[in-house]
Amino acid sequence: MVTLPPADSRGTRAALVFALTAERLSLWYEHGQWPTEGQGATLAADWLARTRRSLPLAARRQLSDLSDQLARHLAASLSVEAGLFTVHEMMEALDPNYDSEHARALMAECERLVDAADEGG
After folding, report:
1. How remote is the C-alpha of 94 from its chain's centroid?
2. Is 5 in contact with 12 (CB distance < 8 Å)?
3. Structure confidence at residue 121 (pLDDT)
4. What is the rounded CA–CA span in Å between residue 84 and residue 105?
5. Residues 88/100, Cβ–Cβ less than 8 Å
6. How many Cβ atoms sit within 10 Å of the Cβ of residue 20?
7. Which of 82, 98, 100, 103 could be 78's S-S partner, Cβ–Cβ 3.0 to 4.6 Å?
8. Is the distance from CB of 66 to CB of 17 less than 8 angstroms?
């Protein structure tokens, strides 16, 4: 049996930011809409619930906000084609068996965002 890291671990929180960013970008490119912070917090709760873990609402909202910042930054800085490629790579990378240099770079950015939030800035 695989033991998962706690929900409040750095890695889990970065993975949540990554997954929420992928979802946000997917919705943006498919429907032209951004999920709200609350919708992101609910997605985070659903994602954690699949592994019987949870985080307080305030923590989920913070991660939702970080993912919103990253998703909007990516959408503003990438062409539509590059954005769609990024979404594809991120969604594929939600499968732990999928390896992508692009997704690893985005995960590193998610880790940086989590670290910056932990440092209060």
Report:
1. 10
2. yes
3. 61
4. 16
5. no
6. 27
7. 82
8. yes
* Contact between residue 16 and residue 44 where contact means Cβ atoms under 8 Å apart: yes
Asked whether the predicted pLDDT for residue 1 surpasses 70, the reply is no
Q: Note the pLDDT tens digit of each residue in 4-41.
A: 788 889 999 999 999 999 999 999 999 999 998 889 99
Let me know: does 100 contact 93? Beta carbons within 8 Å: yes
CA 101 to chain CA mean position, Å: 17
In whole angstroms, give the CA distance from residue 18 to residue 24.
10
Can you tell me the distance from the alpha carbon of 33 to that of 104, in angstroms, rounded to the nearest whole number?
26
Average pLDDT over residues 79-98: 94
Phi, psi of 56 (to 5 degrees): -60, 155
pTM over 0.90: yes
Q: How far is CA 100 from the centre of its chain?
A: 16
Is the pLDDT reported for residue 81 higher than 70? yes
Nearest to 40 by CA among 18, 70, 61, 12: 61
